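Lab meeting prep.
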Amino acid sequence: MQAKAVVLYSGGLDSSTAMAMARDRGFEVFAISFSYGQRHKHELTVARQNAKQMGASEHLVVEFDLRLMGGSALTASIDVPKGGVGDDIPVTYVPARNTIFLSFALGWAEVLGASDIFIGVNALDYSGYPDCRPEYIEAYERMANLATKAGVEGTSRFKIHAPLINMSKADIIRRGVELGVDYSLTHSCYDPTPEGISCGMCDSCRLRLKGFSEAGLCDPLRYAPDTARCQKS
């Protein structure tokens, strides 16, 4: 019987590539997305539209509201920075977001009888978020096997896969292209227009565009007119 894997899927470039890599490793993929009050909710529209097309057998959308706590430019009335990727943890960091996401994914994995969870975090070309580092993933995996019935009884050994964690954005894109990922079905921008057009200036857009440029490819997404980028019309 084909092994199952839960994949954290935002509709973005990294999570879509991680999902393709899970499928390439022979897993039946169950995608999980989150409606958490994010200002860039267009990513959720993209995720809902494309999860099955990207290879998911099922797609679960979990709803909760991190705007109740705020503390991030993605969940509060704080401007999304457009000045480039810096050295400090930016205000787009959402407190404990990946811990919350992984907890939902872990619960669903235990229900499904899946031992494997894929998350598209990256610690090379990224914004410096603390919950994207290898030591965080390793610590969460240890916790997952201590905190679950399956882990304690020994019926399952949970593995948190972070296949992109040490890859450059360019290498992620190249690998995705090899696996047939259609990047026109993804979305990365933190501050898109109401129509879903990417701003081209936030950290996420800058890292994405840098990756495509270094991979020698054009990003198929539309960007705001005042961002001169290599992009398809």
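Slide two material, second protein:
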Amino acid sequence: MIWAAAGASSQPPLWTTPDPSSASSLSFPALVAQARPAVVAIEVKAKNPGPASLPFSYDSKRMYPELPPARHIRGLGSGFVIRKDGYIVTNHHVVAQAESLRVKLPSLHLDLAARVVGLDPRSDLALLKVESPVDLPVLPLGSSADFPIGSWVMAIGNPYGLVAIASKGIVSGKGRTAGDLSPFRTRFFDFIQTDAAIDLGNSGGPLLNMRGEVIGINTAVNSRARGIGFAIPVDLAKAVLPHLLADGRLKRSYLGIRIDPVPWQRATALGPGEA
């Protein structure tokens, strides 16, 4: 499997695997108490594109020369610690436009500068790193393949700036695609669907089973529905994260064809490539 690379070097494994001896289900209060310390708030400082972002169909600067210049805006997302020396998982769309990042761990009263280690837009995953004066609490990565629809789950994140909010629900579907989220991004995902409340600010936070294991990364809601959220399966994250750590991105192979111009119009096979 691809994610075996996580522990293939002299470095410690990138994530913690569940302890089989503690595989019993937790109560909701115990689950919140166990998982919450490893969930972080991510503050993003990015540049607003300014007048070009205004909803005008004509030249905004020419028609409105007094419009304010580009300025900095702030955003908030979620993430969770996977290794005690400061590696954190979140969504690509949370940090993609960031000029600076700060990570807050309320349980430890820490406010730390963060850097991006790797990004993968196609899976909407990002790996961050902070330098902490203490070991950080971590969440183990479970499996997104071995639980049935109807299983209890809990989402923890920072909706609308409210820190470390927990919401419960069930897995209401698996194998969802971007078409189930319209309007959304034009990427393909094998989403986990849940009715645990996921709102703005939850992006990048963990979706947990009742043993406190991450089974998904919360990423989106269906704007046409009420109470339907979507999470990236953790098994996909396990395949992507080692590449983000090693190379800063996931190098994908592809095989395609090219149609030659008229009059030949013959298909020419292309060799393997790297996206």
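Talking points for slide two:
Residues 195 and 228 are 5 Å apart (CA to CA).
Confidence is low (pLDDT under 50) at residues 1-8, 50-65.
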